[in-house]
Write a structure and sequence with these properties.
36% helix; single chain; 127 residues; alpha+beta; two-stranded antiparallel ribbon
């Protein structure tokens, strides 16, 4: 059984109520308002633990720091190649994609992650 942590619960609540897909550094800066003595290492440990437990998503795409998302339901992300902002794309999950992939794979596919890349509205100067 995992020991209760008020800091971990606060980090989870933060991610559940903010849809900005923050980095660990952003979570750390915001958590210091309520927990002035919290360390960046504690934030990283709790984010990694929550991600490993499946309570949050870790969004890694190889260019820049990981981002975190409190929404664990199937959904897609857009990643800006200019400012590295991560945003949700409002569209239905495509379960058919897994079916198609399974036809070409001898193992068992249980989930998928799809990222879309390009320029966000701010970087595209589109309002």
């Amino acid at each position: 059984m995992l020991k209760y942590s008020r800091q971990r619960e606060s980090i989870k609540n933060y991610l559940d109520t903010h849809r900005i897909h923050p980095t660990a550094e952003t979570v750390y800066a915001d958590m210091r308002k309520d927990f002035p003595n919290i360390s960046l290492g504690t934030v990283y440990r709790n984010l990694n633990l929550l991600a490993d437990m499946g309570e949050i998503l870790r969004i890694s795409y190889g260019n820049g720091p990981d981002h975190y998302d409190g929404n664990t339901m199937p959904h897609y992300h857009f990643i800006c190649t200019s400012c590295n902002k991560v945003m949700d794309i409002e569209m239905e999950p495509m379960s058919r994609l897994q079916e198609i992939a399974s036809q070409n794979f001898k193992g068992t596919i249980t989930n998928h992650v799809t990222h879309f890349f390009g320029l966000c509205p701010e970087c595209s100067n589109i309002n």
